[in-house]
């Protein structure tokens, strides 16, 4: 990607990314979205809300973090199926057929089912994740690439919420215990430190009951723009 393009992308994202504290609820689409190929013209769906495919474990965890959000410690992060919906100012004609990788399936429950919560004081981004049957790697278990994806997304979201637009430069993962499909896990990530443009994050994936440590990871993000 050329440096000029990166910088202009960074400017767009920096100007318009939906940050904590800004209105996040489903909003009416502008008229340029009224002939979409993929999504409803009425509202942009927020996928980080419970649906019928959520297991009791996922629902219980979600409720617990929602309670935490009432005290102001945690904030639920909305999730749309296209990056353009998170960024204001990108011409929809150029991007409306693109989908966010983790939200690219039409059927609920078969792929990445998740909701993220941000704790600003602790610089933590937590993702409650239920991997669906289409994410299979070894028989019955979650594909390592999908695990890398949800780690990148969670640590990346933490970096974005603290520092604005970023790109992943390095992702290091230790897979310790396989994640069975359908089992709910918690991806618990933190921005450890920021040095100039470099944002260092760490991450653990544990089972929903904290009994199993599935994965440990660290990721380096580079801030874009000036
Ligand atoms: C953009 C995000 C938008 C999100 C919007 C959605 C909203 C939803 C909300 C929230 C969810 C967000 C979730 C996002 C998660 C997904 C993110 C991805 O999948 S990103 C795709 C994969 N990554 C790439 O394709 C990068 C490819 N690489 C590059 O483009 C460049 O190499 C880049 C930008 C990383 C750095 O290039 P330079 O030219 O700007 O900067 P230089 O000078 O090379 O590096 C700056 C410093 O960083 C160090 N550095 C760079 N790369 C390093 C590395 N791999 N390891 C260690 N240090 C590195 C360098 O040594 C330098 O350090 P010294 O300032 O000299 O001390």
TrEMBL record:
Gene field: LOC101735170
InterPro entries, per database record: HotDog_dom_sf, THEM4/THEM5_acyl-CoA_thioest, Thioestr_dom
Protein family per UniProt: Belongs to the THEM4/THEM5 thioesterase family.
Protein name (database record): Acyl-coenzyme A thioesterase THEM4
Pfam families: 4HBT
Gene Ontology CC, one term: mitochondrial inner membrane
GO annotation terms (biological process): apoptotic process; fatty acid metabolic process
Gene3D superfamilies the UniProt entry points to: Hotdog Thioesterase
Annotated compartments: Cell projection, Ruffle membrane; Cytoplasm; Mitochondrion inner membrane; Mitochondrion intermembrane space
Membrane topology field: Peripheral membrane protein
Residue intervals of the Thioesterase domain: 140-212
Reaction catalysis annotation: octanoyl-CoA + H2O = octanoate + CoA + H(+); decanoyl-CoA + H2O = decanoate + CoA + H(+); tetradecanoyl-CoA + H2O = tetradecanoate + CoA + H(+); hexadecanoyl-CoA + H2O = hexadecanoate + CoA + H(+)
EC number(s) given by UniProt: 3.1.2.2
Keyword set, alphabetical order: Apoptosis, Cell membrane, Cell projection, Cytoplasm, Fatty acid metabolism, Hydrolase, Lipid metabolism, Membrane, Mitochondrion, Mitochondrion inner membrane, Transit peptide
GO molecular function: hydrolase activity
Domain of life per record: Eukaryota
């Amino acid at each position: 990607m050329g440096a000029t393009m990166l910088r202009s992308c960074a400017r767009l994202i920096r100007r318009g990314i939906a940050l904590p504290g800004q209105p996040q609820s489903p909003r009416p689409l502008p008229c340029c979205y009224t002939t979409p190929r993929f999504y409803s013209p009425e509202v942009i769906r927020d996928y980080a809300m419970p649906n019928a495919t959520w297991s009791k474990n996922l629902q219980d965890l979600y409720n617990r973090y929602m309670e935490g959000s009432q005290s102001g410690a945690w904030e639920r992060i909305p999730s749309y199926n296209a990056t353009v919906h998170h960024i204001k100012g990108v011409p929809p004609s150029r991007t409306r057929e693109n989908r966010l990788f983790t939200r690219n399936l039409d059927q609920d429950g078969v792929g990445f089912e998740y909701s993220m919560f941000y704790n600003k004081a602790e610089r933590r981004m937590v993702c409650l994740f239920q991997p669906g049957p289409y994410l299979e790697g070894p028989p019955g278990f979650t594909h390592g690439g999908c695990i890398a994806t949800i780690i990148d997304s969670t640590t990346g979201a933490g970096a974005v919420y603290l520092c604005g637009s970023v790109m992943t430069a390095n992702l290091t993962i230790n897979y310790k215990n396989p994640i069975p499909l359908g089992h709910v896990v918690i991806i618990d990530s933190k921005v450890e430190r920021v040095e100039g443009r470099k944002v260092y994050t760490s991450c653990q994936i544990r089972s929903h009951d904290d009994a199993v440590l599935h994965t440990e990871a660290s990721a380096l993000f580079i801030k874009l723009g000036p």
